[in-house]
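step 3/5: co-fold with adenosine-5'-triphosphate
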Amino acid sequence: MINKKLLSFDRKALHYVGLNVLFQWLGMLCNVVLVMTVSRLIGGVFAGSLTGNALWQGMLLCLLTVPVRYGLTLCASDMSDRASKDVKRTLRSSIYAKLTRLGAGYSETVATSEAVMLASEGVEQIDTYFAKYLPQLFYSLLAPVTLFVLLVGVHARSAILLLCCVPLIPLSIVAVQKFAKKLLANYWGEYTTLGDSFLENIQGLTTLKIYQADGWKHEEMNAQAERFRKITMKVLTMQLNSVTLMDLMAYGGAGLGIISAASAFAKGQLSLTSALTILLLAADFFLPLRLLGSYFHIAMNGAASAEKIFRLLSAQEPEDGEKTADPADSTLALEHVTFGYEKERTILHDVTLTIPQGSFVSLVGESGCGKSTIAAILSGARTATEGEVTLGGIPVSEWKQADRLRLLTLVPHNAAIFKGTVEANLRMARPDAAEAELWAALEQVNLADFCRSQSGLATALHEGGSNLSGGQRQRLAMARALLHDSPIYVFDEATSNVDAESENDIMKAIHSLAGKKTVILISHRLANVVDSDCIYVLEAGRIAEQGTHNDLLAAQGVYSRLYNAQKQLEDLGEVSA
Ligand SMILES: Nc1ncnc2c1ncn2[C@@H]1O[C@H](COP(=O)(O)OP(=O)(O)OP(=O)(O)O)[C@@H](O)[C@H]1O
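step 4/5: write tokens
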């Protein structure tokens, strides 16, 4: 079983595979020399024809072949290691590069947990394919033919018998392959499902604990683990049965060759030296294929994961455009955009909106109406099913991805904060920023005092910024966004889940951009959007209304209803406080 895609994927690893086969083959020749010499010595002793000279020569040859063979085995294993390292490095960097090329919208192609599993366990499985299976496959084709050529002169009948029995092993492998392929596909399915649930449950463990739902999640995972255990046992049983079958073929075939040589010896048709040579080398006809059989199942696993990896690697990438220069006018527009996460459910229906350069535009609407979906489409994380998104009058597909990302900064409500320092998190927005600029950004979001009270810019941050409060995390994300200094900003509920003080600081920073940058603000709090140049009101994925705050209040439509309801609630809150 040769996977052509895998073979053509890493030519350098193939080179190591070739050298591995060569070293194994030379090692086998050493073994043949050793066996033939020992047989000749024993034959000579029994025939009483062994001279002192021949004894010394024979012993010297034996002493020489042993270290040479050992050295060749080491070389073969070194080649195996090199192929393994090369394949792992090439595959992992290809997966990483692919995910980078897929860009902000990578999750449209592959779930994060699946990408992690493919790059870790999936690559390990393919490693065995290159490091063990492939060299063994070529070596097992070469070894029996070489032995036949060497032994046919010793005893033709035994050599022919041995060679004829060799194909029984690949035949038994092929027989189990059909069954194994389906089984392994199911195995991988169960494996990734279990991995997905595990990751999700670990990430959500605190929530599960709060609601005391960890018990039933535990049960659910137990059921998944049980299904995985069952399919693993099926795979192991299949492997064990096929190994038994292969053993039967290997040792049965060697036994037939030995019986043939022994009977010829008994009849006096074969010398003791020749009979011993056949006897000692008979198993070597089969052992390479027998070993291939045991690698075969790992290789099948590798092939199954390779299919998934190649599906990811060949997934369609968003076409990277040519346009790089900053547009003279960075007006952003959605023209008749329709979008759905799933084919059967449309989320956005024929949405058309224009965000002129330097304007302050807000998107509002009830929860689930599609505001974040519009933000995702604007930032390139999602692609419109129909219609077009244009930047400076040019379809975004014509922009070079890197430039499009440089021109637009998305600040979501849960912006990622990375383990490291405050400085490292800020510098990813502008690597060459002067320290004063970093501090200015922190000042703008009212985080500078806190940083000074810690270790300044060197303040250490834990994974996800978990040693900061929610408000501090969001203010840091805001400071980073300000440093990015892009002409367009999209704030998607950037102040949700934060305290009133942080909300104030963040909103102040957002409003400070008005007039200088294009700002698209998505906010559940309508008091924040009152000063917008234009407010788009979404209802069930459609633009229901648009206009300034006063226009929309006067229209007494959806916005006015939402605004008044919210104001009443806030007034009530103030009175009771
Ligand atoms: N990744 C996803 N896969 C499938 N459906 C999704 C996904 N994300 C959002 N949706 C669906 O799309 C619809 C719009 O979601 P979206 O997040 O855009 O709403 P929203 O207006 O931003 O809501 P909110 O104000 O609550 O954040 C929702 O009905 C939601 O169920």
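step 5/5: annotate
The chain has two domains: 83-313, 332-576.
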